[in-house]
Amino acid sequence: MENENITLQIKFKQAVTKYGKSAALHMDQYTLTYEELDYCSDVICNMLREILKDQKEATIAILVSNSFMKFIYMLGVLKAGYTYAPLDYKSAFERNLKILAVANADALLTEERFTDEAEEVIKRGLLIKNEVLIENVSELLKKERREFYSESTQERIAYVIFTSGSSGIPKGVEVQDKAILNFCSSVIHRIGISEKDKTIALSNFGFDASVFDMYPFLLSGAEIYLIKEEDRKDIISLNQYMIKSCITIQCMTTALYHLFLNVENPVLEKLCVIGEKMLFYRKKNYRIFNMYGPTEATVLVTLTEIRQSSSDIPVGYPIDNTDIYIVDKEGNKKSLREKGEICIEGICLAKGYRNNQEENDKHFHEDLITGKRRYYTGDIGMMEEDGNLHCYGRIDSQIKYRGYRIELDEIRKNILQYESIEDAVVLFLEEEVGNFIVTAYCQKQPVDIKQLKIFLEKQLPEYMIPQKWFLMDQFPLNENKKINTQEIRKKFYEKYNMDSLGKSEDKDIEERLKSIWSEVLALEKGKDFRADEEFTVLGGDSLQSLTMLLRVNKEFNTQVLFEEFIENPTIERLVEIVKRRK
User: How would you write 447-496 as a 3-class SS string?
Assistant: First the structure.
């Protein structure tokens, strides 16, 4: 581990000294060298120290799009010795306001496009100093800078990133320099990152996967590419961009990885996968790493190179200065190859949740024997004899859906804010016909579900909006007079009849697939075709079939492989695959 006097900003300065003239950031035809990035972030540091009158500690919120300013602001905050709180600019603004209320931010760094949002933040009094900075690269390069050396140490909270909270309020996870430096050191050496590498910053700034996209590469003298939004969601365009830009290392979510296996990339050297359970592996010309870790343990705590496929692909071995245990409900260690809760110890652990002692007491504990601090993840896992970890889902109300950790109680709390709702229960159903976030509700007065969804879209990210709703006169109770969720599930199945739902679902899937095929193949408007007709017979080629599958996977939030479809390229077959994988 690094000397305790070495901080993130010092490590970055070392990279600037070594790679100053090299490109640090690239977007469209523009590049920013390490020296220019250093200069601009120094100016931001100076401005922050001035407006905050050299106070020793502060939290600075950052609301920016996918631009150079994201990196400039982040480094400027760190150089000033402060903490940054990244906001997801694509998230519901009301949710960002809730985050600011918890963050206790002193100031906001943003861009001109978010002027209205900044004014609303000031209006609501969510900034301690009521200071907002709106800057751009060209203006920063014209300003005078002076180097400032903060007295911060590795104990400094570098960032606070927010995750879904069961109270309805997002939880702020405080991560220190020492945890990030340990993460960077492990990743750089075990995966192998150098100044010769190039990567794309694909992850959202408001999520901790962005830490992987930034720090290991900046500290290694590598080049980070930022791309347009439309290129981030289209695998074909993304892959073409990666090939054209000679991207050598890429981190992506598991869902994106499953799609990426359908395309060929001759220049990529290493692919790092994190987010959900890896369903399958295919040998490629590049190395594939599987990784696991909660936000509370600084991005990842295990990683391994995958060399063969299996029905239970492991997530890897612990990184440096990290210990992982499998425990029972009482916290006792379980034997190897026995399932239990995954617990983490080590320098990787977050300091805790900001202003949330209840959650800290619930998840962070000291081991009574060793005195070491331990984080209880809520994830179910199993450890092999050689230390390789496997993951199997959750033990609590938190779910993993579309790559996101979601607290069902946060959805419920927001639903209860709608004036016509008397009570609500949110469930996650995993069925053959698909995975659903379902809400049962009791009403004070008639509820217009369409209007309720519009209301929720202002409070929650799109992926947290329930797909199915059903009205009940009252909720059933168990013997302890608590809401009987099992009975509610039963009533849902009775009301909708999952068998008939499956049949109607088949028809719905078929119609949606036909619509996609018609658009991709540019078929004559109104032209119908049988579900057993092959894609190629209708005029489709391999590129069109890949385009179609990308559309299908996005439409149904699934992972259909190119090879699966080609074996029997019909709507009929595709309906079966979508139902199984959805």
Answer: CCHHHHHHHHHCCCCHHHCCCEEEECCCCCECCCCCECHHHHHHHHHHHH
- Cα–Cα dist 368/450, whole Å: 52
Q: Do residues 161 and 39 both lie within one domain?
A: yes
pLDDT of 436 > 80? The answer is no
In the chain, % helix, strand, coil (3-state, to 5) comes to 35, 25, 40
CA distance 426 to 44: 44
> Residue 433's pLDDT band (boundaries 50, 70, 90)?
very low
Other CB atoms within 10 A of residue 438 CB: 18
User: What does the block give as tokens for 361?
Assistant: 């007491």
Integer Cα distance of 389 and 290 in angstroms? 11
- Looking up residue 181, the CATH number of its domain turns out to be 3.40.50.12780
Tell me how far apart the alpha carbons of residues 304 and 297 are, in angstroms, rounded to a whole number.
Answer: 17
Q: Long-range pairs for 271-277 at CB < 8 Å and ≥24 separation?
A: 272/191, 272/212, 272/303, 274/209, 274/212, 274/299, 274/300, 275/209, 275/403, 276/400, 276/403, 277/313, 277/391
Whether 410 maps to a domain, the answer reads yes
How many domains in the chain?
Answer: 3
Closest CA to 398 of 557, 164, 209, 208: 164
Kindly tell me if the per-residue pLDDT of 400 is higher than 80.
no
